[in-house]
Amino acid sequence: MAKNPNEAMDQATESARAGMDAAQDGARRAGEQMQDGMARATEGMQAAGERMKATGEAMADAGSQLGLKMLDQAETNTREAFQAMRSAAQASDVTEVMRIQAEFLREQGSRSVSQVREIGELIADFGRNAIGQMTGRR
Fold it and tell me: Which of 31, 35, 44, 97 suits a disulfide with 91, CB 3.0-4.6 Å?
């Protein structure tokens, strides 16, 4: 306890100063923590943005590959169909025409199964790559 009013005033001033210093120190630490948190959040968002950009580029590439594969398959199917039509046009009788048509249909069925499998594999690979890039696991 203070013996005189001046000493009491000095003690109160010192207590107030200590309280203010503690409050300022707490505010400074809170501000630093907030800045650190914001920096981590910004870095996370930038990384996510970069992954999304890479995924978009991969999507464009996969779409291009898929389109080219489908064009190749359509070209092969058209070429085979014209070859079968030429053979049928040169056939000597109806039996030969029927044999050519049956052979074409059998080969086209096998070709279709293979083509569907190729397209399915391209799409599955694209999906795996897209998920890997979005999650950062590739």
Answer: 97
Token output for 22: 């503690």
Compute how many other C-beta atoms are within 10 angstroms of the C-beta atom of residue 124: 10
* Cα 85 from Cα 81, distance rounded (Å): 6
Structure tokens at 15: 């207590």
pLDDT tens-digit series, residues 6-44:
787 878 788 878 888 888 888 888 888 888 888 888 888
- DSSP code of 65? H
Instruction: Find out whether 104 and 84 touch, Cβ atoms under 8 Å.
Output: yes
Alpha-carbon gap, residue 85 to 89, rounded angstroms: 6
Quick one: the chain helix, strand, coil %, rounded to 5? 90, 0, 10
How long, in residues, is the chain? 138
Q: Give the tokens for residue 137.
A: 């696991």
Q: Tell me, rounded to whole angstroms, the distance of Cα 37 from its chain centroid.
A: 26
Total-model pTM:
0.60
